[in-house]
Give the backbone structure.
Amino acid sequence: MSTKVLSVGGSIVAPEFPDVDFVTRFVAMTKTYLAAHRGDRLILVVGGGGPARIYQKAFRDVAGVAPDGDTDAADWIGIMATRLNAQFVKACFGDLCKEAVVTDPTAAKDFTGSVLVAAGWKPGFSTDNDAVLLAEKFSADTVVNLSNIEKVYTDDPRKNPDAKPLDTISWQDFRKMVGDEWMPGKNCPFDPIASKKAAELGLTVICAGGKNIENTKAILEGKDYIGTTIR
């Protein structure tokens, strides 16, 4: 029996509204995978996506708060968005997910179903960090980070046309790229706090495009995949 952790970006679950087509195909793929790999379990940690960013921006506009100001309030808004998205995903798995959505990864107990769904925890921590903590708790050696980017680049390709995609990168080099501080709504391949913890634990993180369902299946099955491996 193996337990695999997937950090499923809110940007692919709910880029603005829930992406019904994606979630339908993702749930079908994971059900097929679990049926073919009896005893395996999946932990899905769901991000806040569009709803988080929309409400965080609204809060800052109404309160007149700078993008880097009152981060606790903005974080709580984002956390609530992750919990809504996670509850939606949990419901879509029906009886395969028997436990309530996990909102504190340090208090998560063993689960009886094939799927466990988790959401945001508390200010200062993203769902990437929750995924790392759950990987530690359930002895998983890899976290699959599914987002709207296929690979990690040497720089932001939207700003730097010379940025190059990476197949592999060390934790040392990756952490130089993302820095050490977390900010609500920050857009980076894997958040800095989670990266520090993952490096300390010796975890492998695979960053891949979550919309490519077949690619995610290949990752789960240990086959060749498109993405960036951080170790």
